[in-house]
Amino acid sequence: MSNLIDIQSQIEKLQKQANEIKAKEFHSTVQEILVKMQAFGITVKDLQTTKPSKGPKQKSKEAAPKAAKKDKKAGASVAAKYRGPNGETWSGRGLTPKWLSALIAQGQPKESFAIAPQDGTTASSAS
């Protein structure tokens, strides 16, 4: 039965062996990679992309607009429609925040916390 000290000793011994093998094979592995990069026309810039591609780069006229459309939607901020007495704000989207729910439960109308729009329209017409 092995104890912790024996296992740690084995780990250290195996780690040394792994480092030796890595050192021996490093140069040949780099050469293999360079040969494949040259054969496929891969550049260092291709390797630095955030998404791995499944094949050669193909320029698609459809791909760019779809990506741009997703970027516009993702993380788009919406102007606040309601402001609480302590400066809290809510866009009117999603669940009603606790501060506003509590005030409504006290009998205050939600519209009394509406922020006047900057564009000249009325708060009641924008729902």
From TrEMBL:
Superkingdom, taxonomy of origin: Bacteria
DNA-binding protein H-NS-like C-terminal domain span: 72-115
InterPro entries (UniProt xref): H-NS_C_dom, H-NS_C_dom_sf
Gene3D superfamilies: Histone-like protein H-NS, C-terminal domain
Keywords in alphabetical order: Cytoplasm, DNA-binding
Family stated for the protein in its record: Belongs to the histone-like protein H-NS family.
Name assigned to this protein: H-NS histone family protein
